[in-house]
Amino acid sequence: MGFLKLLLLENFKSWRGRQSIGPFMRFNCIIGPNGSGKSNIMDALSFVMGERTANLRVKSVQELIHGAHIGKPFSSTASVKIVYCEENGEEKTFSRIIRGSCSEFLFNDKAVSRSVYTAELEKIGIIVKARNCMVFQGAVESIAMKKPKERTQLFEQISNSWEFAEEYERKKKKMQQAEGDAQFNYNKKKHVAVERKHAKLEKEEVIPKITKEVFIFKKAYGIVVDPANSISIV
C-alpha cells in the first residue's frame, strides 16, 4: 500500500503563495489550537481528491482562494497538489487548479478530464463518491445513526463492491433456479422410490393370492398341480 508523501498548496484558503507540507511518513498526526488551520489541511486534501465544493464549507469554488473570504482574493487562481508514493517507490501526482469558477484537473502534471482523474484516484484506492479515505467532523456520529440498510450501502460504496451488484443479482437468480431444479428432481426421485416400494409390497401381497386361486382352479378341474411350481410371476 502506498502513502501520501507531499502536499503542495498555492493561494489556497489560509495559505498565501506557494507552500509545501511534508514530506509525510506513513503515519502522521497534526495538532494545534483552534483556528490554526487543521481543518484547512483536511479541506485541501478533500479538494485535490475531487470533493465537491459544497462539502468544503464554502458556497463557491472562488471562496477557496486566499483572501476571498474577506473580499480581497490574493490571486485569480489557487491550486492543491499531492505527491503519492506507491509501494514500489513510483510517484504519482494529482493536482486541482481553480481558474475563475471552474476547476482543472492534472494527473502527473498533464491535464485530464474529471472522469479520468477520478479513475486514477480509484486505482490507488480513493473512491470520491464513497469518501472512503476521509473522516469529516460529525461523520462518525452520522454513520452510527444510519439504518442498517443505509450502512450496508455505505460499506458497499467504500469497498467498491456495489460495482458487482448487477452481476451478483444475476448469479443469485441462477443459483436460486438451480436450487429449485435440484429440489424438483430430488422430490421426483423420492416419489418414484416410494411408488416402487408400494409396487413391490403390492406384488408380494398379490402373488400368493393368485397362486392359491390357480391351485384351487386346477384342482377343481382335476389338473395335477405341483403347489411349489404352480405359478411364476415376475
UniProtKB/TrEMBL annotation:
<keyword id="KW-0131">Cell cycle</keyword>
<keyword id="KW-0175">Coiled coil</keyword>
<dbReference type="InterPro" id="IPR027417">
    <property type="entry name" value="P-loop_NTPase"/>
</dbReference>
<keyword id="KW-0158">Chromosome</keyword>
<dbReference type="GO" id="GO:0003677">
    <property type="term" value="F:DNA binding"/>
</dbReference>
<feature type="domain" description="RecF/RecN/SMC N-terminal">
    <location>
        <begin position="4"/>
        <end position="126"/>
    </location>
</feature>
<dbReference type="InterPro" id="IPR028468">
    <property type="entry name" value="Smc1_ABC"/>
</dbReference>
<protein>
    <recommendedName>
        <fullName>RecF/RecN/SMC N-terminal domain-containing protein</fullName>
    </recommendedName>
</protein>
<dbReference type="GO" id="GO:0030893">
    <property type="term" value="C:meiotic cohesin complex"/>
</dbReference>
<comment type="similarity">
    <text>Belongs to the SMC family. SMC1 subfamily.</text>
</comment>
<dbReference type="Pfam" id="PF02463">
    <property type="entry name" value="SMC_N"/>
</dbReference>
<keyword id="KW-0539">Nucleus</keyword>
<dbReference type="GO" id="GO:0005524">
    <property type="term" value="F:ATP binding"/>
</dbReference>
<dbReference type="GO" id="GO:0016887">
    <property type="term" value="F:ATP hydrolysis activity"/>
</dbReference>
<dbReference type="InterPro" id="IPR003395">
    <property type="entry name" value="RecF/RecN/SMC_N"/>
</dbReference>
<dbReference type="GO" id="GO:0005634">
    <property type="term" value="C:nucleus"/>
</dbReference>
<dbReference type="GO" id="GO:0007062">
    <property type="term" value="P:sister chromatid cohesion"/>
</dbReference>
